[in-house]
Design brief:
Elements lengths: L8 E7 L1 H13 L4 E4 L1 H6 L1 H4 L7 E6 L3 H13 L4
Antiparallel strand pairs: 1-3, 2-3
């Protein structure tokens, strides 16, 4: 993916490895290219990647896909049992 102002990465979700896997799968099924940051480090040492270890793994998409990706993530979060 060529990096520039129109195509740069933007975070759409952060969570546990299981949650990130689900969101990544949903986005890829919608033909959105996904980049996961801190996947290994967040699993092994979550306190190194974010304060308190909450939501250590982040999902990024291209800026051009942000609106579509955010709709998918919002729908996923809405359907979560709390």
């Amino acid at each position: 993916m060529k990096m520039n102002q129109e195509n740069g990465p933007i975070e759409v979700f952060a969570g546990t490895p299981w949650q990130v896997g689900m969101v990544k799968s949903l986005l890829e099924n919608a033909e959105i290219e996904v980049f996961v940051m801190d996947e290994i480090l967040g699993t092994l040492n979550p306190w190194w990647t974010s304060p308190g270890g909450a939501g250590p793994i982040a999902v990024f998409v291209s800026i051009k896909d942000y609106i579509k990706a955010k709709q998918i993530v919002d729908e996923y979060e809405k359907n979560q049992i709390t």
